[in-house]
Amino acid sequence: MNEKQRLEGQQVVTANPTDKKSEKDYSKYFETVFTPPSLKDAKKRGKEEVKYHNDFNIPEEFLGMGKGRKFYIRTYGCQMNEHDTEVMAGIFMGLGYEPTDTVDDANVILLNTCAIRENAENKVFGELGHLKHLKKEKPDLLLGVCGCMSQEESVVNKILKTYTQVDMIFGTHNIHRLPNILQEAYMSKEMVIEVWSKEGDVIENLPKVRQGKIKAWVNIMYGCDKFCTYCIVPYTRGKERSRRPEEIIHEVRQLAAQGYKEVTLLGQNVNAYGKDFEDIKYGLGDLMDEIRKIDIPRVRFTTSHPRDFDDYLIDVLAKGGNLLEHIHLPVQSGSTEVLKIMARKYTREQYLELVRKIKAAIPNATFTTDIIVGYPNETEEQFQETLSLYREVGYEAAYTFIYSPREGTPAAKMQDNVPMEVKKERLQRLNAVVNEFSAEAMKKYHGQTVEVLVEGESKNNPDVLAGYTRKNKLVNFIGPKAAIGQIVKVKITDAKTWSLNGEMVEELDAVEVE
Ligand code: SAH
Ligand code: SF4
Ligand code: F3S
Predict the structure, then answer these.
(1) What residue numbers does the annotated binding site for [4Fe-4S] cluster cover?
(2) Which atom of ligand 3 is nearest to the CA of 268?
């Protein structure tokens, strides 16, 4: 399939009518010079089959583009964005650019953005303000905005109007077009905008430069079809598309062969993995059962939607080994009424039943979650149900958020009678419980010996090493630098609310709590 065919079905405005560049010779590359996003189009779920490609290559004429130039990418948001950054870094390197870790050195700066809450977006607008002076000092610097915010019409309009220092905006479905977008940005005086509202196909052979040599992200699916009423992700990431199992298994095997110790399988809703396959019946349980047999010590997955967490997956996870006994299971609210308005499609009771089943099958499982407080019209009683559910499940950690209206989502249109002070106060009360439970869970580790995957020196003290347990607890400990990248046994001597301190030991000398 060529680029033109690939573009079919995309929302394409051939060129900015004010942009004379499209008439030039290289116009074949710039069919989508000005393709603004549309949330309405993004909502449509096409019936057409997802096509898989292995034909990505950097056009020859672009190969020297990066010679003598450096790139810098700042990443906001979730692991999906972290991993997209690794792909973009791979493309930059393929173009001959070198990486740099300071904006002052960079010839291209990209902000890979997150749209999940208003404050995530405000950080990016703030950063664009800070970077403005660099554009003045270095007129040939390219400044780009990509990631989830680019998929929003309102953001693109705001940048067009207010942040004219930006040279290019491209969307989450346009990452493979980075070479073309960069080339156009070098040639054009206009802001280059290429944001496909509808997702593209799955491209398997995009290059990547991974950030670390110990842990790796592996996408298993893209997009989300759940449309929880508060959430922007189904609009910014398109419909659910699963990668073929053989591609994922091959990637994990390669990572194992390269010495990686941990992989995290990524998707917005990994439990829906495989539902879009038409030719095979194959789900997350099947995939995990295969990956379990690969010689890689640790396998995580995120994020699980409670609704699609099936019994077969539980059975497979119960086999343990490299499948870790840590389940991140976002609940969002403990109130069935609120869950209904959120369109989460499970009740409090169904969620608790799922937790019960997982605990029965995996007795030492640890649960963590995501919670939103202050949903439109959330009552004190409904909030209390969230607190009581937290206690009932006994989560060991949680990401907690105040509801943030996202333009274009159904919840953003709801009347809301909960004042911001009340929302803030609920968040504080919830966080007090979250801290209490984390501290309680940590205390149990005192005197125990745990397995730690050592990631490097501790941030605050280079004489101390830091790493994570199977259940993702941060451990700081004294040990030899040679331990970095290894899984070692550490005896816990001190438990804090969010981390553990310990000493490396040769042998297991106590019953492990993990
Ligand atoms: N796909 C994942 C969540 C991805 S977003 C899942 O369904 O579990 C990560 C978290 O951000 C969500 O779990 C939710 O708690 C929070 N979130 C999403 N939209 C939000 C909004 N509009 N306001 C506040 N928090 C939000
Ligand atoms: Fe958003 Fe819901 Fe999809 Fe998670 S499952 S990404 S919260 S719409
Ligand atoms: Fe943010 Fe997009 Fe991830 S909105 S949370 S970066 S999918």
Answers:
(1) 78, 114, 148, 224, 228, 231
(2) 7
What the block records as the tokens of 7 is 């573009």
Give me the DSSP letters along 103-161: GGG-SEEEEEE--SSHHHHHHHHHHHHHHHHHHHH-TT-EEEEEEGGGG-HHHHHHHHH
- From residue 292, how far is each of 299, 318, 322, 488, 514 by CA, in Å? 8, 11, 6, 21, 18
**Residue 168 shares a structural domain with residue 293:** no
Of 368, 510, 363, 367, the C-alpha closest to 446 is 510
With a 6 Å cutoff on the Cβ, whether 116 touches ligand 1 is yes
Q: Which ligand is nearest to the CA of 302?
A: 1
Place of tokens 């680029």: 3
How many Å lie between the centroid of ligand 1 and the Cα of residue 403?
Answer: 9
Residue 341 alpha carbon to ligand 1 centre in Å: 15
CB of 305 within 6 A of ligand 2: the answer is yes
- Decide: 230 in ligand 1 pocket, CB within 6 A: yes
| Gap between the Cα atoms of 115 and 112, Å rounded | 10
Kindly identify the ligand whose nearest atom is closest to the C-alpha of 399.
1
Q: Which atom of ligand 2 is nearest to the CA of 227?
A: 8
The two three-digit tokens of residue 196, written as one number: 């496909």
Distance CA 233, CA 248 (A): 23
285 in any annotated domain: yes
303: cis peptide before it, omega within 30°? Answer: yes
Give the domain extent around 430.
207-443
Rounded distance from Cα 307 to ligand 1 centre (Å): 15
As given in the structure block, the two tokens for residue 64 are 């020297």
Per-residue pLDDT tens digits for 106-159: 999 999 999 999 999 999 999 999 999 999 899 899 999 999 999 999 999 999
**Of the residues 170, 202, 234, which one is the last residue of a structural domain?**
202
Is residue 513 included in any domain, yes or no?
Answer: no
Q: Are 174 and 190 contained in the same domain?
A: yes
Atom nearest to 269 CA in ligand 2: 5
Asked which of 409, 443, 477 is the last residue of a domain, the reply is 443
Cα gap 421→35, rounded to integer Å: 40
Q: Which atom of ligand 1 is nearest to 402's Cα?
A: 24
The rounded Å distance from CA 72 to ligand 2 centre is 29
Query: What number of other Cβ atoms are within 10 A of residue 381's Cβ?
Result: 9
pLDDT in tens, 222-279: 999 999 999 999 999 999 999 999 999 999 999 999 999 999 999 999 999 999 999 9
How far is the C-alpha of 435 from the C-alpha of 433, rounded, in Å? 5
DSSP letter (8 states) at residue 226: -
